[in-house]
UniProtKB/TrEMBL annotation:
One of its GO terms (biological process) is 'de novo' pyrimidine nucleobase biosynthetic process. It comes from the Bacteria. One of its GO terms (molecular function) is carbamoyl-phosphate synthase (glutamine-hydrolyzing) activity. This is Carbamoyl phosphate synthase small chain. It comes from Phocaeicola salanitronis (strain DSM 18170 / JCM 13657 / CCUG 60908 / BL78) (Bacteroides salanitronis). Belongs to the CarA family. InterPro entries: Anth_synth/Amidotransfase, CarbamoylP_synth_ssu, CarbamoylP_synth_ssu_N, CarbP_synth_ssu_N_sf, Class_I_gatase-like, CPSase_GATase1, GATASE. HAMAP family: CPSase_S_chain.
Length: 358
């Protein structure tokens, strides 16, 4: 294993060993506190442009499942067709794996997809630095190539455009009782699966596609990476769709932020984001609490919601917004991931609520 160094923008250095593809890389360094789910997280398009630090110390011990595809074109065990994170940073990589569904090691998968992986990093200390300072840009540099230093920019880059589909894709065509337009900002496959499982036809469109001329019964706005302020075209199309006050609309993650922007609210960047399987949220106006899977670096400013809108969920750790709803029209959203792949399935009922409205 070659020696590598993770260099943060504040000058902090963390030394480790390379176990993935050997290339220097740069991106926004974030941390995820989930104990499992690295195949799903690595293939989550919301991690585009980011160096993903896993705080759970042992990673790789259950290997990687096969990259097979269902008849509808969705990957069977992954959340997209490839790894989207720029790199993975772990404390202790397990070279040996054991799992009934594993076909290769994490290292072999990373090498095949040309994604760096580094081990031997004190991820507890790295996470403490990121919590104190906030997320930072970072670079993974090979010690024997000190002059080969990568550069990257995260703020202001439209990562949604990089990961969204490029043409309209239809699922369950002609078989669904109702049709749902899914605005693909970097959608996770399990969101599509959750919709198909409920018997609807899904029309997946690129993030900036004007879907308003299509025949459909409901609008779904997906998760996605980066800054929602780079996605004004999507906001304008959503705003146009909202002229039909009876049209059901449901948004997840980035979808929560874009629906909020369409309703006039503002977005701000969180200090270090929410990336885990254990974020507690409360449904506003009730004592109902849920444990949720999350992956986002931006949040809706509750103070900027219009008079016709109200928070639907609140994060119980920091009080930030976790979803909104319109007081009269059938429009609502969640900042967390009800489809939870991987993660708890406490809130998958939100898909049922959406389909009932169609």
């Amino acid at each position: 294993m070659r020696n590598v160094t993770l260099i943060l923008d504040d000058g902090s250095r963390f030394h480790g060993k390379s176990f993935g593809y050997e290339k220097p890389v740069a991106g926004e360094v974030v941390f995820n506190t989930a104990m499992t789910g690295y195949p799903e997280s690595l293939t989550d398009p919301s991690y585009a442009g980011q160096l993903m630090t896993l705080t759970y110390p042992l990673v790789g011990n259950y290997g990687v499942p096969p990259f097979t595809f269902e008849a509808n074109g969705l990957p069977t065990f992954m959340e997209s067709e490839k790894i989207h994170a720029e790199a993975i940073i772990v404390s202790d990589y397990s070279e040996r794996y054991s799992h009934w569904n594993a076909v290769e090691s994490l290292a072999d998968w990373l090498k095949r997809e040309q994604i760096p992986g580094i081990t031997g990093i004190d991820t507890r200390e790295l996470t403490k630095v990121l919590r104190e300072h906030g997320v930072m840009m970072g670079k993974i540099v090979f010690d024997d190539e000190p002059d080969n230093v990568p550069e990257a920019q995260y703020a202001g880059v439209n990562y949604v455009d990089k990961v969204s589909c490029k043409e309209v894709i239809r699922y369950n065509e002609g078989n669904g009782r109702k049709k749902v337009v899914l605005v693909d900002c970097g959608v996770k496959s399990n969101i599509v699966r959750c919709l198909l499982k409920r018997g609807v036809e899904v029309i997946r469109v690129p993030w900036d596609y004007d879907f308003n001329g299509l025949d459909f019964d409901g609008l779904f706005i997906s998760n996605g990476p980066g800054d929602p302020d780079t996605c004004d075209a999507a906001v304008q199309n959503i705003r146009k769709a909202m002229q039909n006050e009876k049209l059901p609309i449901f948004g997840i993650c980035m979808g929560n932020q874009l629906l909020s922007k369409a309703g006039g609210a503002k977005i701000y960047k969180l200090k270090y984001g929410h990336r885990s399987h254990n974020q507690p949220v409360r449904m506003v106006g009730t004592e109902r609490c849920f444990i949720t899977s999350q992956n986002h670096g931006y949040a809706v400013d509750n103070n900027t919601l219009g008079a016709d809108w109200e928070p639907l969920f609140i994060n119980m750790n920091d009080g930030s917004n976790e979803g909104i709803r319109h007081k009269c029209n059938p429009w609502f959203s969640a900042q967390f991931h009800p489809e939870a792949a991987s993660g708890p399935t406490d809130t998958e009922f939100l898909f049922d609520e959406f389909v009932k409205l169609l």
